[in-house]
């Protein structure tokens, strides 16, 4: 959202419909009340099956990108990429691909260190 829209919302205090909130990027999903549990379960399921290593780095780097010059982050990004490529999750993803099955990133193997 741009500064102009943020000022408009802040200063005019207009009512924002769910559809408008979605279009402006204020919310990520708009669902009917009866669909909330199913939608939330789908989101949780998708997040649950993602790589913890990649997710951790992505969250950290996205937050850092708002406070640092992107050129300062290049070495951090390369380190994160190397850690992801050398992680047990990449091995699991490759095995799953070869076996034509969904990768399982939980539970992690015993002795696995979290990023």
State the separation between the terminal residues, measured CA to CA: 31 Å
Low-pLDDT parts are none
Question: What does the main sheet amount to?
Answer: none
Number of strand segments = 0
CA radius of gyration is 19 Å
Strand content range? under 5%
Mean pLDDT metric? 90
Please write the string of helix (H) and strand (E) elements: HHHHHH
Which structural class best describes the helix and strand composition?
mainly alpha
Individual helix count: 6
Helical content class:
55-70%
Shape: flat
Task: Provide an overview of this structure.
This protein has 115 residues and is mainly alpha-helical. Helices cover 59% and strands 0% of the residues. Helix 4 packs antiparallel against helix 5. The longest helix is centred in the middle third of the chain and has 14 residues, at 52-65. The chain is flat.
